[in-house]
Structures are given as structure tokens and as C-alpha cells.
Amino acid sequence: MNVPLLDLKAQYAPLRSDLLDAVTRVADSQQFIMGPEVEAFEREIALVTDTTYALGVSSGTDALLLALMALDIGPGDEVVTSTFSFFATAGCIARVGAKPVLVDIDPETFNIDPVAAARACTRRTKALLPVHLFGQSADMSAILALADEFKLKVIEDAAQAIGTREHGGVVGGIGHIGCFSFFPSKNLGGFGDGGLVSTNNHELARRMRLLRNHGQEPKYYHHLIGGNFRLDALQAAVLRVKLPHLAGWTEARRANAARYRKLFAEADVPEITLPVDRGGDGYHIYNQFVIRAPRREELRAHLTAAGIGTEVYYPVPFHLQQCFAHLNYKAGDFPHAEKAAAEVLALPIYPELTDGQQAYVVDRIRAFYRE
């Protein structure tokens, strides 16, 4: 049986006609940069993020960069974030000239450890950048309390967590700015790169609107030095077609996660540690279903041979990346992140995954540890 890590064709097939109609609509309009298509998408996505302002941007990476620029974070400033995430989280901090101050993770959720974050704050700390990794929110109650104590801004990296609920709200609208990605593998993915920044603050929204278009208003009159962070109308049109299906896709992912738990319990594979779903007022959207597995590389090779797609998110924490050697971290500084990097393995979790495919995945994992 073939079980890909992600099957975008299965998502595309039932939407093909609507998606091609949307692309044709934009092509016929010949308006490709910003415009009514992007504005309509921003109104619609603001309802999902439960924020007053939602601005389409060119990628999730540019969303983070734009957020940091809007908060005037730069040389001499420090931003506390997790050492275990996609590179853009720390990379964007460095790109604006600030210092990424890295901390360890909660070993159960893979998200930033608020206690470690508190210890890392100094008089130079200007912001906290929690990541809602794999679709589950960081502990925002603790993060907000820490931000209040040290008078810090909070940028939420919600690239993998659109629609995740926490702390009585929706991630991306809990801190000062939320950052999202519409990379094709995300729960809401476009036909290429795309992203979003969200906020409830009028002044921050105004600054980000300026900064995403070279700081100009009107054309050729520049108030700030910004960048080209605009969302293409083609991507906005595609995302508008997909957006009404997002809630259903999310529920299908959650159902698949529940089925994995049932299948693993029945298979009795004690070697595997399943992802923790904190429950309560939280809401895991399972952008990834990440297990911990001893002999991870051998297991992955076994699953690949069986036609099962997997991925390692992420094999090297930031503090051990060559480009951050100047930060003077060393192996052993963040043991929970290092252990996770050696054990994590993402299994297929996409909405169209069948019961039989999931049973096959679990059976092959059981066979690996029994054989």
C-alpha cells in the first residue's frame, strides 16, 4: 500500500473546477498584485483568526519579518524564542539585526518552556516569540503573564496552527501580532508561497500595511523603509476557495489523530510515544502528527520501503546550527530539544487519509519493533 506523507492531489480533485474558475477570474481581471481579491480574502480570514485586522503577505517567513519590523525590533534588542522550530522563526530575528535568545522546550508538547523563557529575559529583551508547533498552542497564559511582567511584545508564530484555540481565544489574536503561513503543506495551503499577519491593534495594522508595500502611501511617497511583502491575487483567490473547507479538514485531521491513538493502543507498541493533546480549552489542529520513536532512522527506512511517507521536523535545533555558532550555544544546553530532534517522526495525517491506510501505517510500525 502507498501512503504518502501528504496527498495534495486528493484535496485538489473535488475542488478542481472551483479552483480553476478562481484562477481564471484573476487572469481575466489582469490584476495580480493586491486588489479586490486580496481584500476579500483578508475580510474572510479575519473571521477565522478572530482578529480585527488580517493582512495577506508573501510568505510565513515574511509575516515574521514584517511583525518584527512593525515592532521596531533591531540591533541591540533580544527576542526570546524556542530552539526547536522551522528555521524562519530564529532566522527572521537575526535578519532584523536582533539577537535570538534560545530556550528549551516542554518535552510533552514540543513548545517553548515558559519557565525557561522567563529565565532568559534580560533588560534587552523586547519580545517573546512563541511557536505553536505542529498545530498545538504554546502555553499562552504563561507567555502573556511573562510579557506583562517584563513589558514585552508577543509575536505568535502560528504558521502551523491556523484555527488553533487557546486561552479563550484563537492563536494569532492572543498576542500583539500573529504570523501564519499558506505554504501548500499547511492545513490551509495555497498554490505556492503565501502568509498572513493578524492583530487587534490599529496602529500595528497601519504600520504593517505600509511596511509590506515599501512603506509607501500614496504611491512613490515613502513614510517607512519596508519591503515587498505583498500577497498575490492568484494566491488569495485559491485560498478563498479553500477557506470554507478548512474547518472540515481540521476535524478530519483530529479524527485521524484519534484513530491513530486507538490503533496504536490496540497494536500495543510501547516503544512509540504519541503526541500529547493538552485538551482543556486548547484545540490541536494536527498540522503534523509527530511521534517519538527509538531507532528513528531505522524505522523511517523501514516505513519508506513499505511505501509510507514520513518526515523529521526538525533534525537540528537552532542552537546547533552552524549559522548560529556566534551565539555560543553548545550541545547539551537544551537537552529536551536535542532529545526531540533525535526521536521525532511525522506520520501521514492529511484529511483524506483512509482507515485502511492508517491501519497499515500502525501495522508496519508494530512489525518493525516486533521483528
Please describe the topology of this protein:
Elements: H1 8-29, H2 36-49, E1 53-57, H3 60-70, E2 78-82, H4 88-95, E3 99-103, H5 114-120, E4 125-129, H6 140-150, E5 153-157, E6 165-166, E7 169-170, E8 177-181, E9 195-199, H7 202-211, H8 233-242, H9 246-267, E10 289-292, H10 296-305, H11 335-343, E11 344-347, H12 355-370
Parallel strand pairs: 2-3, 2-4, 4-5, 5-8
Antiparallel strand pairs: 1-9, 6-7, 8-9, 10-11
Helix pairs in contact: 1-8, 2-8, 3-4, 3-7, 9-12
What would you say this structure looks like, in words?
With 371 residues, the chain is an alpha/beta fold. The chain is 40% helix and 13% strand. It folds into two domains: 231 residues, Type I PLP-dependent aspartate aminotransferase-like (Major domain) (Aspartate Aminotransferase, domain 2), CATH 3.40.640; 125 residues, Aspartate Aminotransferase, domain 1 (Alpha-Beta Complex), CATH 3.90.1150.10. It contains twelve helices and eleven strands. The strands form three sheets. It has a seven-stranded mixed sheet with strand order 1-9-8-5-4-2-3, with helices on both faces. A two-stranded antiparallel ribbon has the order 6-7. α3 runs parallel beside α4, α3 packs across α7 and α9 packs parallel to α12. The protein is globular, with a radius of gyration of 21 Å. The model has no long low-confidence stretch (mean pLDDT 97).
